[in-house]
């Protein structure tokens, strides 16, 4: 059970998950008193309509609570910005909005996430943890909750969950990015993050590992050639970063399971950046050279 001061998201996971950032929009609606039941039925219909559109990744409906007592928050995620725009401007959605307008009071607020490509100062962090087999659904809800909390912090760009792959890796891996190291550190040291992580802790087996990678600058320079698009840089970094994080997490659990968290994190970051800079990123950029060209 979630603590009452932390927002809970009822996630739907009956659609496929895509790797990489998913363009997302959060819609906040205030329901007229006495129309809550009607709104819930209407909201189920509009979410079902979204599921029928190409590129639909998932949606969550968050009812009012202490954090936003008067508003429902609906989160839609699509594989591409174009597919999200197609749903948002579709005649089907417009007709349903016109039908549901009588159930609402006040303006509808929409906040779009993962629109801009990261700047050269963007910083990516990878967190790996082994989740109890009976707690996967609760961990997915926790991930959705943490993302909603994280989005309120300056500089937030993306947060994605990579679930275990049988025979390949056993951990749940969370990859999240901010536009600068300063903003990432503000999130990492925040009370809000500590609160949600403390509540997730009972779902975890063993220790959690965290690796931070700096901006992508320097990994894609090629004799003055035009720099690849940022989204391609992010994909290439993720290809190299994911196995690096898994390897470092395995080594820590195997050889230093009881090591102090801060020194272990520092050593892991230093080793991880060294592996990426001098080993994996040169290899990945060579293998993907043709694809990386703008």
What order do the helices and strands come in, and which of them pair?
Layout: E1 10-12, E2 24-29, H1 36-51, E3 56-62, E4 72-78, H2 81-88, H3 91-100, E5 109-113, E6 123-131, H4 136-150, E7 156-162, E8 172-178, H5 181-188, H6 191-200, E9 204-213, H7 230-255, H8 261-287, H9 289-292
Antiparallel strand pairs: 1-3, 2-4, 2-5, 3-4, 6-8, 6-9, 7-8
Number of helices: 9
- Residue stretches low in confidence (pLDDT < 50, at least 5 long) are 1-20, 114-118
- Helix and strand string, N-terminal first? EEHEEHHEEHEEHHEHHH
Q: Trace the largest sheet across and list its strands.
A: 1-3-4-2-5
Beta-strand percent range: 15-25%
Instruction: State the CATH class of the largest domain.
Output: Alpha Beta
Shape: globular
| Total domain count | 2
Largest sheet: 5 strands, antiparallel
N- and C-termini, Cα separation: 47 Å
Q: Examine the secondary-structure arrangement and name the CATH architecture of the largest domain.
A: 2-Layer Sandwich
DSSP helix fraction: 40-55%
**Given the helix and strand composition, which structural class is it?**
alpha+beta
Rounded mean pLDDT score: 76
Strand element count = 9
Q: Could you name the CATH topology of the largest domain?
A: Alpha-Beta Plaits
Supply Rg.
20 Å
Architecture overview:
The chain has a five-stranded antiparallel sheet, with helices on both faces. The protein contains nine helices and nine strands. The relative contact order is 0.13. By secondary structure, it is an alpha+beta fold. Helix 1 (36-51) runs antiparallel to helix 3.
């Amino acid at each position: 059970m979630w603590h009452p001061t932390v927002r809970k998201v009822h996630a739907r996971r009956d659609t496929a998950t895509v790797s990489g950032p998913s363009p997302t929009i959060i819609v906040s609606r205030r329901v007229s008193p006495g129309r809550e039941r009607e709104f819930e039925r209407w909201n189920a219909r509009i979410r079902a309509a979204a599921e029928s559109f190409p590129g639909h990744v998932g949606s969550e409906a968050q009812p009012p609570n202490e954090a936003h007592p008067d508003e429902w928050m609906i989160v839609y995620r699509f594989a591409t910005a174009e597919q999200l725009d197609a749903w948002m401007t579709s005649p089907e959605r417009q007709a349903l909005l016109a039908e549901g307008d009588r159930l609402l009071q006040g303006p509808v607020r929409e906040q779009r996430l993962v629109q801009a490509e990261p700047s050269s100062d963007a910083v990516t962090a990878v967190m790996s943890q082994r989740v109890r087999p009976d707690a996967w659904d609760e961990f997915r809800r926790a991930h959705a909750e943490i993302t909603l909390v994280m989005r309120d912090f300056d500089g937030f760009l993306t947060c994605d969950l990579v679930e275990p792959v049988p025979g390949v890796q056993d951990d749940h891996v969370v990859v999240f990015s901010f536009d600068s190291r300063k903003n990432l550190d503000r999130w990492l040291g925040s009370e809000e993050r500590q609160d949600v992580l403390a509540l997730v802790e009972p779902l975890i087996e063993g220790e959690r590992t965290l690796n931070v990678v700096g901006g992508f600058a320097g990994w894609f320079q090629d004799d003055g050639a035009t720099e690849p698009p940022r989204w391609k840089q992010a994909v290439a970094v993720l290809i190299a970063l994911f196995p690096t994080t898994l390897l470092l997490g395995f080594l820590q659990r195997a050889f230093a399971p009881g090591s102090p968290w801060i020194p272990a994190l520092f050593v892991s970051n230093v080793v991880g950046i060294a592996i990426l800079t001098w080993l994996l990123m040169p290899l990945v950029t060579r293998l993907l050279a043709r694809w990386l060209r703008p």
